[in-house]
Write a structure and sequence with these properties.
Radius of gyration: 17 Å
Largest sheet: none
Helix content: 40-55%
Order of helices and strands: HHHHHHHH
Shape: globular
Distance between the termini: 18 Å
Length: 164
């Protein structure tokens, strides 16, 4: 499945998370720097940070080395951590938002809606199975993954970037 990217724009992302069940008192804001002065401008509390950065060959080399080291040494992952493998093109923003919400669900007090139902549907699944839920969303229009992808598609057309 190929999607238009969701613009990295707080207005678009806030609309997305609020449609999916995050209460309106929670919002996404731009972070203009990590120095003390820039951090003072960020509303508190902060539950999550999403980084936007370009990938390079050096990044992919480092990621491959890290992956090989983890396979060799092993890794213990908390069962409380929600992670979803990304199989859908241009869904990195949506996946980041899902991770941000799912790993803070106890603090957000989600409303009944797509996020809450998607998290219920994905309980007990592996990261790969969760990713497959989104990848196969087009084949089941009754699933929460389909509704989430539909919201993504609609909001991908908003924002300031021209879609070509």
């Amino acid at each position: 499945m190929f999607l238009l990217p969701l613009e990295s724009n707080p207005d678009v992302m806030n609309k997305f998370i609020h449609i999916l069940g995050v209460p309106e008192k929670w919002n996404i804001v731009d972070v203009y720097g990590l120095d003390n002065d820039a951090l003072e401008w960020i509303p508190k509390p902060v539950l999550s940070l999403i980084l936007l950065f370009p990938c390079s060959e050096k990044f992919y080399e480092h990621a491959k080395e890290e992956c090989e080291a983890l396979k060799e040494k092993g890794q213990v992952i908390s069962p409380d951590l929600f992670y979803m493998k990304q199989y859908v093109s241009n869904a990195c923003g949506t996946i980041a938002l899902i991770h941000s919400v799912a790993n803070n669900v106890e603090r957000l007090a989600l409303k009944d809606g797509i996020f809450k139902k998607l998290l219920e549907e994905s309980k007990g699944k592996t990261p790969e199975e969760r990713g497959e839920m989104l990848a196969k969303a087009g084949s089941n229009s009754n699933s929460e993954a389909f509704k989430l992808i539909t919201a993504h598609q609609e909001l991908a057309m908003e924002g300031q970037t021209e879609v070509i």
